[in-house]
Write a structure and sequence with these properties.
With about 240 residues, the protein is mainly alpha-helical. The protein folds into two domains: about 170 residues, Orthogonal Bundle (Helix Hairpins); about 60 residues, no CATH class. It is about 75% helix and about 5% strand. It contains four helices and four strands, in the order αααββαββ. A four-stranded mixed sheet has the order 2-1-4-3. The longest helix is centred in the N-terminal third of the chain and has 82 residues. The relative contact order is 0.12.
């Protein structure tokens, strides 16, 4: 095997390792995105439960306000009844009775609202309890998945590290100028930068190359490029 053929083989091997690195990096990013999506899902569910609990606290406060108002009114009725015992005219007596009646009617309305509020509170409490249970289950599942994603991501990062070391070992035997050319080609083409030619067809763009160029490829004496896609090409014997 010629030295130049060895250099081509190094380029092909490095390209294969780079593809593995790219795939591992994509998996790492995908795992990271999935973990971030889980974080967001938990945050949204926690915010929803927090919002419902805040609404429940508001209902309870409103009930306490009604309760306080009813208590004040009840005390007013007691005081008005005490005033009845001290009145001296029928007019004052009737006025106080009317006042007591109005307070009692008002309290009756408040008590009705309190009953409605209690029903609303009970419904809200049941909803919050259910949402908290769902959240607890989701958080448990979330933690398990996060641990799984973290373990997978760690393995993939270790794989990337090992592949980079492998690439460095392979590249150490290459002519630096060849890698300069390879980097230039990578900037110009999408996908593989080094491709074989089989039966006079470039495996990068699947176009026929000139017969003379196909014959020259088999010499392995210099870098050659596809006249159509401009990738680095090399002759690969049919298996």
């Amino acid at each position: 095997m010629s030295n130049f053929q060895e250099q081509i083989n190094i380029l092909v091997e490095v390209q294969g390792v780079e593809l593995e690195i790219h795939q591992a990096d994509r998996l790492v990013n995908a795992l990271s995105n999935e973990a971030a999506a889980l974080d967001q899902a938990v945050a949204e569910r926690e915010a929803m439960v927090s919002s419902e609990k805040a609404a429940l606290d508001g209902l309870r406060k409103a009930y306490r306000d009604l309760e306080s108002e009813a208590k004040v009114n009840a005390e007013m009725v007691v005081k008005s009844n005490e005033k009845l015992r001290a009145v001296k005219t029928n007019k004052e007596y009737q006025s106080i009775l009317k006042e007591i009646d109005e307070i009692r009617k008002k309290n009756s309305g408040i008590e009705d609202r309190m009953l409605e509020q209690l029903e609303t509170i009970e419904s809200a409490e049941a909803s919050v309890k259910s949402k908290e249970a769902e959240l607890a289950g989701f958080v448990q599942s979330y933690r398990e998945k996060k641990e799984m994603f973290a373990a997978k991501e760690k393995r993939e990062r270790q794989s990337v590290e090992a592949l980079n070391e492998k690439k460095a070992r392979i590249s150490a035997n290459a002519d630096p100028q060849i890698f300069t050319v390879l980097d230039d080609v990578k900037k110009k083409v999408r996908g593989l930068a080094v491709v074989p030619v089989q039966q006079a067809i470039c495996m990068g763009c699947h176009m026929n190359i000139p017969a003379q160029l196909f014959n020259e490829l088999q010499r392995f004496d210099e870098l050659r490029f596809c006249p159509h896609c401009h990738r680095i090409i090399y002759w690969k014997e049919q298996g």
